[in-house]
Amino acid sequence: MEESSIFIPKPMNRSALFWVVRDTSVLIGRSLKHIFKNMDQLFALVIQPIMFMLLFRYVFGGAIDTGSTTYVNYLVAGILIQMAAFGAMTTSINVAADLQRGIVDRLKSLPIISSAVLTGHVVADLVRNVLSSIILIGVSLLVGFSPSGSLVDWLELIGILLIFTLSFSWLSAIMGLAAKSVEAVQWLGFVFVFPLTFASSAFVPTKGMPTALRVFAENQPVTHVIEAMRSLMVGTPMGDHALLSVIWCGSITVVCIPIASYLFRKNVGKV
Amino acid sequence: MKEITPIVVRGLRKSFKNVVVLDGIDLTVERGTILALLGPNGAGKTTTIRILSTLIGFDSGEAFINGIDVRRNAKDVRKVIGLTGQYAAVDEYLSGRENLVMMGKLYHLSTSDSKRRATQLLEEFDLTEAADRNAKTYSGGMRRRLDLALSLVATPPILFLDEPTTGLDPRSRLAIWERVEQLARDGTTILLTTQYLEEADKLADRVVVIDHGKVIAEGTPNELKSNVGNERLELVLASDDDVAKAITTFNNEQLRKEEHRTVSLAVDGSVRHVKHILDTLENEKISVVTFSLHKPTLDDVFLQLTGHQASEEKTEESK
Q1: DSSP line for A143-197
Q2: Per residue in B27-51, pLDDT tens?
Q3: Predicted structure pTM score
Q4: Separation of alpha carbons B171 and B140, rounded Å
Q5: B44/chain A closest Cα distance in angstroms
Q6: Is pLDDT above 90 for B253?
Q7: CB of B47 within 8 Å of any CB in chain A?
Q8: How close does chain A come to B188, measured CA to CA in Å?
Q9: For residues B38 and B131, what is the distance between their CA atoms, to the nearest angstrom?
Q10: pLDDT averaged over chain B?
């Protein structure tokens, strides 16, 4: 045994619920620290949408007919959601990195609840996306974006952005756990997010698309979320986009959380 | 009072898909001792550690950590173990101190205890100067030290080390060895895997050699060495005639023909025995070019037990 002069810490005795909350908050704290310690990642996430913003606004914008809405007003919701979707892929990259580096093994050997690590990454995604959204909206305002939504509209908009990010982050956690390597995940994110965001109403109205593509684009969740956000920002017709956004994102989240937690626990990793 | 044996494993079996990785492993580790699991790549060392540290399940058999059933009560097992995996599992974007404090909190220590323990471990592992730098900037040796420190935050009575010094320079390896020996002296029970025979020889009280998921030998490093036979006197003889004469002079059990004009003779290691052989050689007028006394190493153990060299694994496993 150790000499008495050496400090031997003793675990605290608290309820199971207390530990669920504390373990999760400790790991959320870890992931939040990552946002600011891994500035490259944050930077990359913000730079790309700004490039897209400027590119579409000034290069393609003149050639795209968005009816009564100016193109810049049309564009912001699309880029915001594309950025959120890519931002959510950070979870899969970070989960895969944790797996690769053996951090998941270490955390799984601790007396903590298994989903806390994933929750940490997902919450960090939410915070990161809010930060990058603020920056993007700031840039948009500089290039002519003129939103008309009320405060209530903006609160609803933030709500939709958050549940969209939440659903994609959990989906992305599954991708990270399945792919197991950072390289594979980056590739997976690319083939997954690009089609979903481009085959939508993010950059151009769907009416000019070939029928099959248009049917897909008009009924997939990303379009509903974009249309709902666009309506709240600049007053385009809402229809049932908000409702369908909530149903889609809610369902994705509810399905993905248990699958991700299961994969995390069962992950066999390397022999 | 009966003492609970810290690690007891009986008939452990595990397959991944159709590949049998563990084919009935038995292990017992007594308190405050170090057991080294030695074997080539794919022998099942890491799988054994992963099962015992509750990371993965197993197909059949039994495993008890401090008397706690690993299959039934994984959560309680996690309270008494520390794990250092094959890769230095430190969070690169956190500093050494932040890594340690986080681990303390996850072991359910209070925040102040976590901080105090972190400071103490940073000192013990010679990381105080680098404490507040991101672990990303650490050298390989520093990462390993931090890694080991992380698994000691809650002073677990049982510690699993999966290849703790793989890829380290000799000086860093020595530093880890000293810490591991100290831990065992302080009463920690340690199960480690290694691909370095030297490491098993240096650290372990007992060595279990596994190959293809089976225990093929077990004992103290010395017992294993004596299994291979006694020390051998290696003789390089002057001509093929001398070799022929030597073969007729000594019996088959004692003499082994090695390559070229070399023969080796089993000896008990005593001066008297060696002198007797040298005298016999002189009487028979067998001329010897050089001779050397060859002590068996764990490499010999491995070669004899598995029929292949341990060293051929090294390149595979050091990816």
Answers
A1: TT------HHHHHHHHHHHHHHHHHHHHHHHHHHHHH-SHHHHHHHHHHHHHHHH
A2: 999 999 999 998 888 889 999 999 9
A3: 0.80
A4: 12
A5: 8
A6: no
A7: yes
A8: 8
A9: 34
A10: 87
